[in-house]
Every structure is written in structure tokens, then in C-alpha cells.
Amino acid sequence: MLQIVFRSHLTKLLSYTDIQRLCLAAARNNRKAGVSGFMIECGGVFLVSIEGEHRDVHGVLDRIFQYPHHDGIEIVYSEENLGRRRFGAWAMNVMFMDDDVFWQTVFGSGLSCDEILLHRTMEPVFALGLLAMAYHYACSRTKILPSPVGARPGRIPRISHMFRR
Ligand SMILES: Cc1cc2nc3c(=O)[nH]c(=O)nc-3n(C[C@H](O)[C@H](O)[C@H](O)COP(=O)(O)O)c2cc1C
């Protein structure tokens, strides 16, 4: 299996509802393709992980590249021969991270989430850690297993599972 983590930013402002719709559409596509994913969003910047068989992930990536309202897609990390999915609970889910208090508590004062997501060079380990933190938080809040078993992981998220901190 292949995991790709990328960062991109919106070129058009979208509301929470728009982003939730986008996530739902992505989840439906991904579910059909057997791809699972998770993303965090802050200030119009996304950090996204998608995982699945190589061909399926590349198919999804093609669609992502074609999506017109985001830009500057930067692959932050990729791993081939992934033994098991790291973010397999949902076909795609999103967590909104736009709470400065949270970021300052975790990373120290003076930082805001869009500074971290937008301006910093995104170290792969940092990106994976950030996604993992958000993912495990979402799994524990929804009581969904972070490492699902079975042939078809990747459920469609409920809107109420797209967390805002
Ligand atoms: C940050 C970001 C992540 C996306 N992730 C996916 C994805 O995982 N799968 C996908 O099919 N499209 C993804 N897209 C692209 C579109 O959101 C998606 O294809 C579109 O909303 C689907 O609409 P439709 O299938 O109803 O035409 C992503 C777009 C953005 C901006």
C-alpha cells in the first residue's frame, strides 16, 4: 500500500459547511476506490493523508489535482509498501484546527495554526505527528477504532464526526 501526505491551500474561501460537503464527496469517492484518508484544516490550509493500493491512491490524487479551488499542492511525505493503514477509520474525515488556544498550549506561545500550517517548512515527522494527534483525538471522541480490522476499512463520516476543537 501507498501513503501520501500533502499540503495545499484553498484559493477560494469556503465555509465550514462547504468543507464538510467537500469532505463527504471525497469520502464517497475514496470509499469506492478503497482509499482511506484524514485531513486537518486551518485558515484554508489543509494537511491531508490518503492511503490505499498504489493505483487507487494515484487515481484519487488525479482527482485532487484536478480540483480547481486549491493551489500549491506540496507532497510532504510518501511511503510505499505500507504494511497497514495509519489513518484507516474513515474514507476521508476532516478536523478543523482553528483554535489558537489549542495550538499555543501544544506548541508554545506566539504560534497560531495558520502560521504552522501555512508558513513553516512542513517536516514529514511533524506532519505525521500532527495528523496522528488529530486522528486519535477524533477516533477517541467517536469511539471508532483507530486501526480498523476487516477487508474494507474507511467509513463515510457523519457530519458530527468532523470535529472543531
Ligand atoms: C484538501 C482537499 C482534499 C481532497 N481530497 C480528496 C479525496 O481524498 N478524494 C477525492 O476524490 N477528492 C478529493 N478532493 C477533491 C474534491 O474535493 C472532490 O473530488 C470533489 O469535491 C468531489 O466532487 P464530486 O465527486 O461530487 O464531483 C480534495 C480536495 C481538497 C481541496
Fill in the keyword field for this structure.
binds flavin mononucleotide, Alpha-Beta Plaits, 5 helices, Acylphosphatase-like_dom_sf, 39% helix, BLUF_domain, 165 residues, alpha+beta, globular, BLUF domain-containing protein, five-stranded mixed sheet
Describe the structure.
There is one protein chain. This protein is 39% helix and 22% strand. The protein has 165 residues and is α+β, with helices and mostly antiparallel strands. It has a single domain (2-161), classed as Alpha-Beta Plaits (2-Layer Sandwich), CATH 3.30.70.100. The protein has a 5-stranded mixed β-sheet, sandwiched between helices. The chain is globular and about 45 Å long. The model has no long low-confidence stretch (mean pLDDT 90). Flavin mononucleotide binds at residues 8, 22, 25-26, 29-30, 37, 39, 46, 48, 50, 60, 63-64, 67, 70, 92. InterPro entries: Acylphosphatase-like_dom_sf (IPR036046), BLUF_domain (IPR007024).
Strand order of the largest sheet: 4-1-3-2-5
**What name does CATH use for the topology?**
Alpha-Beta Plaits
The residue ranges in which pLDDT falls below 50 over 5 or more consecutive positions are none
Q: Which distinct ligands sit in these coordinates? A: flavin mononucleotide
In the CATH scheme, the class would be: Alpha Beta
The number of distinct helices, counting runs of at least 4 residues, comes to 5
- Beta strand %: 15-25%
What overall geometry do the principal axes of the alpha carbons give?
globular
InterPro entries: Acylphosphatase-like_dom_sf (IPR036046), BLUF_domain (IPR007024)
Domain BLUF: 1-93
Pfam families: BLUF
Protein name: BLUF domain-containing protein
